[in-house]
protein-serine/threonine phosphatase (Solanum tuberosum), 384 residues
Amino acid sequence: MVTSTWKRYVYPCWKPTLDNEGDNSSSRGGDPGGSVDGLWWYKDLGHHVNGEFSMAVIQANNILEDQSQLESGSMSLIEAGPQGTFVGIYDGHAGAEAARFINGRLFENVKKFTSEDQVMSADVISKAYLATEEEFLSLVRNQWQTRPQIASVGSCCLVGIICSGMLYIANAGDSRAVLGKRERALKEVKAVQLSSEHNASLESVREELRSLHPDDPNVVVLKHKVWRVKGIIQVSRSIGDAYLKRAEFNREPLLPKFRFPGTFQKPILLAEPSIFVQKLLPEDQFLIFASDGLWEHLSNQEAVDIVSSCEHHGIARKLIKAALQEAAKKREMRYADLKRIDRGVRRHFHDDITVIVLFLDSHLISRSSFRAPVVSIKGGGGGP
């Protein structure tokens, strides 16, 4: 049965444009590296080793805190190494420094450890996360005297890697990866969430925190009807957030809102990701990677319905537009009015939102030795 909700999202797929949003042909940035139009950055369609992709970002904060990248080609430093596609969504908080740092280092660390092990694996990805974490904490320590607030900056980190017919999903934080899987018997595309989320709003996450810190009754606190780690932050895993990883940064001159009484012996937040691995099958149609700003307004199935019912070109922007329409509706305003609100003030209506959609071509995925042109693209255009 076609629901009214489904029709509301899918109907725009037959319109020729996105109300001219982001369709400015003179946008700076150019097509090869994406285009910028106002608060939008987008790459409507491109090709990766395993199919096509679409990327888009909408800014809400004064400074864009979301960073992202898509890398396709060699997954190691060795020319004869495995080929594949790497996707990263980095949702920063308290600033953009951590997300930008990850955008420059994490994939390089993945290639380094893949070269050492001579194969892609969950262990390679975990080591790359932890190495990137240590590099950023070293940066914080070096800048502590001149820029102490960098100790409060962190980022969620969602990664997807397709390599040798296998799919690896790694997550630290509350971004999300969703698979669109064709159910032949039902003739529909089903949403399958692949990432584990680390947010204190989930009872399982609160239990994990309490078990890891049995001597700290305040490791998770209900504050203004929201569960927060140490009463400050919602995510329980991240890269950065040095003040919750090293006791030496839980003091002045860090701002009081990031400091808490007492000390701690082991990191309160973890940088180690949850990792999911599976073999890709012909019925696996596409993957949606997005920061939590999208999932605040769209369910997994709603997002999959939109992607499965629309053409590939511009689909990442269509997903974000659907989320923005819902955000406007929740505030009892028109989407046209929301579009006129500038960054900064925009954050009261929705978060920065980043979306990458990877379409999966089973014929290309099965050709593990296939060498396509290298693709390297970073979302956001370096933002203000």
User: Anything to note?
Assistant: The mean pLDDT is 90. DSSP finds nine helices and 16 strands in the chain. The longest strand covers residues 83-93.
